[in-house]
Structure formats: C-alpha cells, structure tokens
Design a protein that fits this description.
The structure is a homodimer.
Chain A lengths: L5 H11 L8 E2 L2 H7 L2 E6 L9 H10 L3 H6 L1 E4 L3 H13 L3 E6 L4 H9 L3 E5 L3 H15 L2 E2 L6 H18 L4 E5 L4 H13 L4 E7 L4 H8 L21 H10 L2 E5 L1 H14 L6 H12 L8 E6 L16
Parallel strand pairs in A: 2-10, 3-4, 3-6, 4-5, 7-8, 7-10, 8-9
Antiparallel strand pairs in A: 1-2
Helix pairs in contact in A: 1-3, 1-8, 3-5, 3-8, 5-6, 8-9, 9-11, 12-13
Chain lengths: ~325, ~325
Amino acid sequence: MYIPTYDDMLDAHVRIAPHIRCTPVRTSDYLNELAGCQLFFKCENFQEPGAFKVRGAANAVFGLNEGQAKKGVATHSSGNHASCLSYAAMLRGIPCNVVMPRTAPQAKKDTVRRYGGKITECEPSTTSREATFAKVQAETGGDFVHPYNDPRVIAGQGTCSKEFMEQTGGLDMVVAPIGGGGMISGTCLTLSKFAPETKVIAAEPEQADDAYRSFKAGYIIADDAPKTIADGLLVPLKDLTWHFVSNHVTEIYTASDQEIIDAMKLIWKHLRVVMEPSSAVPLATILKQPDAFRGKRVGVIITGGNVDLDKLPWMLGS
Amino acid sequence: MYIPTYDDMLDAHVRIAPHIRCTPVRTSDYLNELAGCQLFFKCENFQEPGAFKVRGAANAVFGLNEGQAKKGVATHSSGNHASCLSYAAMLRGIPCNVVMPRTAPQAKKDTVRRYGGKITECEPSTTSREATFAKVQAETGGDFVHPYNDPRVIAGQGTCSKEFMEQTGGLDMVVAPIGGGGMISGTCLTLSKFAPETKVIAAEPEQADDAYRSFKAGYIIADDAPKTIADGLLVPLKDLTWHFVSNHVTEIYTASDQEIIDAMKLIWKHLRVVMEPSSAVPLATILKQPDAFRGKRVGVIITGGNVDLDKLPWMLGS
C-alpha cells in the first residue's frame, strides 16, 4: 500500500491546475449568525463536472505515461467519480470505460456519455460488478482508477484544502462529508503538513454511519446496504482512506436525514448555490453540535452539485 | 432631473465597497457550447441580501449626511429593493421605512423585518400606496430612495459592470434583465465611458414587454398589469432610466415565460447557482437569438437569488 505524500499533493496541483477550477469560497452573514461561528464554504460544486472528484480524476488521467494513456482509464461507479473521470479523460483525449449498474439513473448515464465515457452495464450486485469490470479491464487494458482508494486520487483531492487555506488565510477546522473517505483523506494529507493545528472533522449521515462506527471501534466496519438521502456517501472506507481517517481525523459527527435536508435548504436559500444532499451533511452536523464549533473559523467543503431538480428532497412525499 | 455621471459611479464604488461583495464570475463549458458563444455570469445573487440592488441602496444610504441619516430612508417596494435598502440601513444603523401592499408574500415581509426595516402596509393599489407613503415620509422625514429612478441608485448599480469588465478583461456585450431599468441604466452609465465598444442588451419577458415596445416606439409605454413568472420585472421605465435606455441600449430582446423557465433550469443545473426567474431572461433571449451572440464574449448579470424553494416554477401545475 503506497501512502501518498504531501509532495504528491503539490505535484498533483501543478498537474491538474490547467484542467480544474480554483473554486470560490462563499460566506453568509445569516448562516454565521445561525451557527454561532464563522463559516467558509468552498464551492467544489462549481467544478465543470460539478464535483471535487475531478481533482483526483484529473491527477490520475494526466499522470499516465503516453503508453498507458493510449489504453485509457477504467472504473466502476454510478456517481460523480464516473462523470469526473470521463470528463478528465475527454480533456486528455483518451478512452474511459465505466462499469455501471443497469439500474443507475438515466441522468448519470447521460452525463458520462456526454463526456465521452463508454458505459458497460452490470447487474446491481458486487459479484456482477467485479466480474464485468475484470472483463472490461482485460479487454481494454484501461488503468483502474478507484473512486477513492487510490493514492493519485487522494493526492488530487488534497489540492482542494491547499486552495482553501490560501483563500481564507487559515481555518480552525475543516469539515467535509465522508463516504469512502477520499476527500477526507486528501484533506488530512494536506492539512497535517500545511496547517497541522487545523482540525479535520468528518460529517456522516446517521443512516450510513459506518465511518463513525469504524472510527470509534478502531477498525473498519462496513454497513449492510445503507439507505440515506445523502446518496453520495454510501460506500465504505478502504485500507488507504482508513489510514488517514484513523490517524488524522479529529472527530466524526453524524446527522439524520431530516437534519441533512434542512441544512441543504438553508444553503440553497442563503448561499444560493445548488448542491447535493451529501454536501449538506457538514452544516447539518455543525448546527447539531454548535458547542464544538462556536466562535471558530470553520471551513466546509461543498463537495458536489449534481441533483435532480425535478426530485428535490423537500418536495418528495409532499 | 439630475443624470448621474461616470464620476458618480466611481464615487459610489469607493463608498459601497466595504458593504457589498465583489461577486464572482461563473462560466460553464456546457452552456457555452449550447449557446455558441462565450458566456460569463456575474453572480449578483451572491450579495448577502441576494440581489444587485444592495449596490444602489448602499450608495444612497451611505451617501446621506449625518442629519438626514438620523431620520433614515423610506421606500415603497415589495421586492429586492425593500430588503436591500433595509439591509444597507441596518449596516449604517439608521431607520428604514418600507411601504408594502398587505398582499405581499410573507417571506418578503419577514426578510425586511429581519434586516430591521419597518413595514407599513397599504392596499394593493397605486392610490393607497402613494397616500400611505406620503404619510410615512411626512411622519418620519425618511429620505425617499426610489427602487430605480434615482441617480444614486443608478450610480450604485453601475459599479457592477465596472467589476465585471475588470474581472473578465473585457466583453463584447453585456446582457441584463430590464424591469424599471435600474441595472440596465447603471450598466449604460458605466460602459458608455469605460468600454464604449461593449454593447448593452436588455432582456425582457414577452408578457411584460413595455420596455421593448417603448424602445421601438421612442417614448415610454407602460403595461397594464402585466403578468409573468419573472416577477421582478413588472415595473415600468421612468424618466431617468428611459434616458439611459433610449440613448445607450443597443437592443432589447424578449422571451416567453416557458423559455425563461427552461433557461432558469439550465442555469441551476449547469452553473449550480440559485437564481430568480427574472435573472434567467438574458439566457432565454440568448438561446432564442443565437445569431446575435455567436462567437462573442457575452456577459450576463444574474441579478438576484431570492426564490421560494417550495414553489419552483417547473414544479407548478405538475
């Protein structure tokens, strides 16, 4: 297991800078007052493909040597990693093969195809996904870029916190959602060196709290088919992300689905940005645990902005 | 009639800079491709009270001498001007009296009160509004800040285009929605001197096209109770804004309500910002008249971001 270093992150930033956006930081006096702390929101939903995952994807894609680049990249994902990897591959002009369950939303498939990604459908089971992916990779020779358990991906995600600290002039803590742990690991990687006094807090849905339980237990516990409105955070930690979580994360807080929806609506209304339920988990936990954040300079990473505008969570069931 | 000058705009920018945000400019490769031109979106919806109108309001409020400031300001409005003037008055710590029809949405009243504005309700008629406002002004001595037909307001709105040109390094045209014409007038004021080769295009809902018809006729024509989803654009031009529209605007384009809703959804989806139907009118007209914009560097001012998230236009009637 190769653990990416701070220098890998610096190299990644130089490599991907021409292909990503240095996203703006937004503030809201109203939300500051509500939360009792000074909030800074890093808008990774403003990346062209709408998610921070373009950082890690671009680092993997643009780090390939010419020989490997000809064969392209491959992954399995039905979320933002699939579209961000396709997007990065399109920018370099190389093939991207994505294995996706046939049950994935049509909109996700459309986005991957719009960026030139080639989709191979599998059944919605781990067995089918793994078998299908092995076949695709054998046929194409595409380099496997895991959605988060990959040192190139973690080094890429780490570039976000470097920008964030430079843009804000320093923060007491950075809060990011945790699913597989790619963004949290990148944040730990960067801040443990760049600003070791800055705490890294992970925020997780109560209904998919495997990282929280792993963190408390001291070893990886996986959820059994979790269900939450924050559907970007369903995947479990893996060895590489567990390394960063267990060594560098200060605390993991959780919030209920209703608290996540309420926080999402607050951000839409007062920051006026469109973001996913997953990206609302940090604010939900901050409002739930105000004493942990009171008076602090708190950075929040808004991880993604790809939502179905026809099915907003506060509209469902009404 | 005092016509504000370029120097008034420069003075306004110095005066209001500590109280407003230099809002970011967003781009989308997807929307560029769709429109066939290079689009730059100036996000005035990211002002703290959610609209560009804080510029003109802050210029009026912070330009008052101490004697007048004690008596505060007064206006009649049920829209963003009311909340932005209340917000600016709150920042200076002076009274703000707002006359508002009793039928105005509760959310608008709540926002004005949250910023410390004092609301006096009137009946929803011009007669009642004028009588009520005269009484309020006589009682309070508050300085009348008209929502748009005021040189201080127009000079304030003009600061937006100065930032826009500096941030983008120049544009072939700037497109903004037109209602009463405050933002368009400020844009004309600034660009006619700062970048006289840059065209100013106004965008208007077909269902409230009084500015378009006035522009074609050569004199002010007012609509009789217009109705459109772009409810920020219902008010008519007045002498001061007509001066700028008739002298400096290159063209006025219109779009239907359905085209406005479609454009709004495109911006929410691909720029990932929350904005009002009124702010979608420019993109709707650009997509409707692609030949007029093809290959150009086109600036679009996203004027405001205050919407009712429970009543989004594409959800209504479904």
